[in-house]
TrEMBL record:
GO molecular function: DNA binding; DNA-binding transcription factor activity; kinase activity
PANTHER family noted in UniProt: CRP FAMILY TRANSCRIPTIONAL REGULATORY PROTEIN, REGULATORY PROTEIN YEIL
Pfam families membership: cNMP_binding, HTH_Crp_2
Any one GO CC term of the record: cytosol
Classification via InterPro entries: cNMP-bd_dom, cNMP-bd_dom_sf, Env_Response_Regulators, HTH_CRP, RmlC-like_jellyroll, WH_DNA-bd_sf
Domain HTH crp-type: 149-220
Transmembrane segments: none
UniProt key word DNA-binding: yes
Keywords: DNA-binding, Kinase, Transcription, Transcription regulation, Transferase
Classification via NCBIfam families: PRK10402.1
Annotated protein name in UniProt: cAMP-binding domain of CRP or a regulatory subunit of cAMP-dependent protein kinases
Length: 231
């Protein structure tokens, strides 16, 4: 996490997402801008969350680690979201892992300041209730995908949601650079079954194996397979 001392960029995010409009009072003076590089954690399960974050650019995945050490995907964020709202209310450590899958920017307000000024801010609390309802809807959608779709469909959806878009010799390429064992855990399957499913997607022309990794060969094939996308 790197603090970015760029007032113009901070102001741009505040205006673009109309952040000041969700508070009864102007608390801009307490806002700070932070940068998280790809794969960095914004918060980790079991650790204190030092800031109430407003996610303003990038993409993150949210997942939970079970008592048996395995992980399960909950959802993704790629639009304006609050991170740390439950921790602000409950004064407890983070219950989920929030990890950047692209370079990400968040506006932060220290938890101490957030609890002091926002717990009695009716306008903000109403906004937060709507935000929590939307998060619940996302979780419900993704749980349904995990339960009702074969791995082939879920993997296609996951690749589209997390693939890293790169420019290779003027051509846009989507690469899958994550650890395959971690992907198998997040999707609730075995490593062997995941590899078999990658091979099925190769046979169907959706992806190719390249330099020891995978990249998307035909995005449309994956979109057709993914049906209901992870959100």
């Amino acid at each position: 996490m790197i603090k970015i001392n760029d007032k113009r960029r901070l102001e741009k995010y505040i205006l673009n997402h109309r952040i000041n409009e969700i508070f009864d009072n102007d608390i801009k003076c307490f806002m700070e801008l932070f940068y998280f590089k790809r794969n960095e954690y914004i918060c980790k399960e079991g650790e204190d969350v030092p800031y109430l974050f407003f996610f303003v650019e990038g993409k993150v995945k949210i997942y939970i680690t079970m008592s048996n050490g395995k992980s399960l995907l909950i959802c993704f964020y790629d639009d304006f979201r609050i991170i740390g709202d439950m921790e602000m209310m409950s004064v407890k450590p983070a219950t989920n892992n929030v990890q950047a899958i692209q370079d990400t920017y968040c506006i932060g307000i220290s938890m101490e300041t957030a609890r002091k000024y926002l717990l009695n801010d009716v306008k903000f609390l109403r906004f937060m209730c709507g935000s929590l309802g939307d998060k619940l809807d996302k979780c419900s959608n993704n749980c349904s995908i995990n339960l009702l779709y074969p791995l082939e469909n879920r993997l296609a959806s996951y690749i589209l949601a997390t693939g890293q878009k790169l420019n290779c010799n003027g051509k846009s390429v989507i690469k899958i650079n994550e650890n395959l064992k971690e992907i198998s855990e997040l999707l609730g399957t075995s490593y062997r079954h995941l590899i078999r499913t990658f091979n099925i997607l190769i046979e169907k022309g959706g992806i190719i194996k390249n330099n020891g990794g995978y990249e998307v060969a035909d995005e449309e094939i994956l979109k057709k397979l993914s049906a209901d996308l992870y959100k």
